[in-house]
Amino acid sequence: MNLSICTKWTAEFEFRIWEGSGADGIAFCFLDVPPTGFVSGGGVGIPVTANGLKIVFDPYDNGCGANPEIQLLNAPGYNECDPTIVKVNNTGGNLNFIRSNAYNSVQIIYNNGNITVTVNGTTWINTFSPVNFSGYLGFTSSTGGSNDRHSIRNVTIYADIAESDAGPDIALCTGVPGQIGTATNPTYTYSWTPSIGLNQTNISNPTVTQTNTGTTPLVLTYYLTTTITGTNSCPNYDTVQVTIYPNPTSTFTLSETIACLGEPVTVTYTGTGQANATYAWNFGTATVISGSGQGPYQISWNTPGPQQVTLSVTQNGCPSNVTTRNITIQPNPVLTVNGPTAICLGDTALYTASTDLQNTVISWTPGNLTGSPQLLNPSTSTSYTVQAVSAFGCLSNDTTFTLTVKPIPVAQILGDTLICKGDSTLLDGFSSLAGSSFLWLPDLDTTANIWANPLENQIYGLVVSSDGCISDTAQFLLQVDSVPNIQGPDSLSICKGETINVTVSTTTPDTQFLWLPGNLTGTSNILGPDFTTTYEVYAYNANCTSDVKLIELEVIENCDCELVIPNIFTPNGDQVNDEFSVLNPQNCNVVSFDFKLYNRWGDLVWKGTDINQPFIGKCLMGNCSDGTYYWVFEYSYAPGGGNTTKTVIEKGILTLVK
């Protein structure tokens, strides 16, 4: 309490000193500083340095007057014998009540230096002792050689003071006015500090308006001093806190200004609002994937075109401005892919891809291919993924397809690689894949095997197909070796007991011969069987054997040759006996023939050198005339067809009649 300002105050309390042997008493003090240390016994606990007003209720006599006493001292320290002390002695026992079992009620009034001390309704001291400093009110007590129980209760200290009420603490938004203080008491004088932001400083309820340009609450303390108008009453103080909340900002960012349909867009709040603020997001037609409150959010749109996101924030009741961000949603390309589902190994598949948007980039994996069309030729069945990217980076849905690579069957031909001319052989076709179809070349047969009988070397081809895949042509050379031919007589005759050299020949090179019976070889053999025998002659080379050549060798028991020469003929053109021929009824092997015909004058008119050449009546000089002609005939023959010959000369007459 500052007595230089507050010049009137009252202290009321009750005290009791009892239950001991009568120790020193209790002091009520108003000191400039709180006391340090204490003094026991007669010092009533008051240190010598304690400066200020002391009012002492002292039941123990320390040699300075009859006790109990009521004392008042306004000086440093305490001494009941101090000559400046104001006291009341226990004359006639009128103060015995100070030490008693009952509580005594005390009232001390200070009014501009005038001090009145009243106990149990009786005023005992009324003096002038001014104090002009700020100080502290309290009690001290002490005992010495004696003791007592000292106690106080129901202490009330009050001044003639106005009631100061700055009102409850308030919170305002920046720039929004609010009222502090309370209703006006017309007997009070009001003073507010600091004056910043107040519309008035000398009223009970001014309006405060403050601006907070920061990002955190601004807390201002306003001080109210209230006094009773026209008096020197103690001022009363109160404070009020005014919290000025900044308006939150509603700024935010979009991760994209151009996005694709369905593409997540991150919305990030960048304003000053706290997590507990109220966030009024408006995402329009977007779908919220994740996020709440302040965010961040993941959103996407399923409708192309211009879109907006707006936000306003309210924190501590303070609203932000509305922030709007624009975004353009681009459509995703719709991808169409066309091509075969399967190819044969080594083939190429033509695939095309197109979209409903222009300027798209189409990519193919695997292979890191771009564009359309694409020629795909994988070696194994492969799954491809095709994706289109628009000029704005928007992706189509992936189109995935599997291009199946079918194996190529392998054709094979098995069979004899060489045959003899005129023979046939079975060629067997095979495929590496079951269920294949067959096509033979050049005959276009479609069976799994064929009979081949070419007349010369022939290349056969086989193509097999399986599930639309065609093999390479398997080639098979079938060589045709010539069958040796045999030239030789069909039949011969010999006279029994003779031999004959029989010769055969062939136009086929590197040919050997086999004669049966006898297992003879070579082109010539001397034969001399005892009876007619048919010989089988075979010609063969490394691969082929001829058909059998049969040579019948007739063994003639009688080998003489008798030719029959007619003695008359009639060359008149009647088709009867018009020719003259030497007849060979025994089929002799005539090896030379010399027939000369003479007229009766000895002139040679016809000569024959071939037994098979008839005389038709034409003489050397013209037609022969009727008449008798003479002939000389010399011929040789090989008896039995052997190597030896016999020569016969005969003469006779021929009659020519026309």
Give the low-pLDDT segments: none
- Mean pLDDT across residues: 91
Q: Helical amount among residues, as a percent range?
A: under 10%
* Strands, count: 54
The best one-word shape is rod-shaped
Walk me through what this model shows.
The protein has 658 residues and is mainly beta. It has 7 domains: 152 residues, Sandwich (Jelly Rolls), CATH 2.60.120.200; 76 residues, Immunoglobulin-like, CATH 2.60.40; 79 residues, Immunoglobulins (Immunoglobulin-like), CATH 2.60.40.10; 66 residues, Sandwich (Immunoglobulin-like), CATH 2.60.40; 71 residues, Sandwich (Immunoglobulin-like), CATH 2.60.40; 66 residues, Immunoglobulin-like (Sandwich); 89 residues, Immunoglobulin-like (Sandwich), CATH 2.60.40. The chain is 0% helix and 48% strand. It contains no helices and 54 strands. The protein has a 5-stranded antiparallel β-sheet with strand order 8-7-6-1-10, with no helix packed on it. A hairpin with a 2-residue loop joins β51 and β52.
List the helices and strands and how they pair.
Elements: E1 8-18, E2 26-31, E3 51-58, E4 69-76, E5 86-88, E6 100-111, E7 114-119, E8 122-128, E9 136-141, E10 149-159, E11 170-173, E12 178-179, E13 188-193, E14 207-208, E15 218-228, E16 236-245, E17 252-254, E18 258-260, E19 265-269, E20 278-282, E21 287-290, E22 297-300, E23 305-315, E24 318-319, E25 323-330, E26 335-338, E27 342-344, E28 349-355, E29 361-365, E30 369-370, E31 374-376, E32 382-389, E33 399-406, E34 411-414, E35 418-420, E36 425-431, E37 437-441, E38 449-452, E39 458-466, E40 469-470, E41 474-481, E42 491-495, E43 500-503, E44 512-516, E45 524-527, E46 533-540, E47 549-556, E48 568-569, E49 589-598, E50 604-608, E51 618-619, E52 622-623, E53 627-638, E54 646-656
Parallel strand pairs: 11-16, 18-25, 27-33, 35-41, 42-47, 48-54
Antiparallel strand pairs: 1-6, 1-10, 2-3, 2-9, 3-4, 4-5, 6-7, 7-8, 12-14, 13-15, 15-16, 17-19, 19-22, 20-23, 21-22, 23-24, 23-25, 26-28, 28-31, 29-30, 29-32, 32-33, 34-36, 36-38, 37-39, 39-40, 39-41, 43-45, 44-46, 46-47, 49-50, 49-53, 51-52, 53-54
